[in-house]
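User: structure tokens for Nucleoside 2-deoxyribosyltransferase-like protein, please.
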Amino acid sequence: MDSRGQTSDRPESCFYICPIGPPESAIRRRSNQIYQHVVSSTLEPLGFSIERADQMDQSGTITSQIIDGLLQSDLVIADLTDHNPNVFYELAIRHAVAKPFIQLIAEGQTLPFDIQGLRTIFLDHRDLDSVHEAKETLVGMVGSMRNGKPVETPLTYTLNLQTLSQSDDSEARGIADIISEIQGLKQLLRTNDPDAGPVRHSSLARTDVMALRNFIQSLAKSGKITADDLRELMYRHKGSKNLSEWISAIIPKYYGPDEPPF
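Assistant: Done. Predicted tokens:
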């Protein structure tokens, strides 16, 4: 491995999937800017060759070429901005083979619940600081990929959970039950956060959130979740001021005054 982190003389392949849009459209212009100023300018110095669907050799069947790129490339980067259905379809193919991928999305947009737990780069391409931070994060994620970090997707998670739940080991089945409960609690927090808007401000919603927070607090008190777990929860719901304040208060309470909430 050289100083750039490149592992061989052969360029590694990256397939970039994104909203394309008609020529001269705002969608195409943004995708071109992300491709040029974030993806290519970051990955080419690391030894990658980057390909995008609209730049493929048109002599073959374009759909087959896209699927081949999704299946065979060393890395896939998916821009989920505006929830383009083609991008999600292509990302699902990559998830199915459990090979390295990186998700990015425009700052201020939300991820569908099924992939909220996957690390994603939030980017404002009109903000130079945001672009710089995105490129630094991208370099770090490529480093993790090259170090052999396991690829986790909703599909692999479900299969692993199914294996645990069907195990002859009672402890494994218990772990599966706990994981399922946590997933349900995450869904409850997402749908019943009192900060989410007027429709959430029912007494039932408040009761559910209080029950959930009491449960999380009991896990923190017993050491079954870490401060990093709570920070991740706060980050994933960073639009909720009440939740952020609550987590900021309980981290030093259960993990010590020297443990920062950020």
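User: Anything notable?

Assistant: The radius of gyration is 21 Å.
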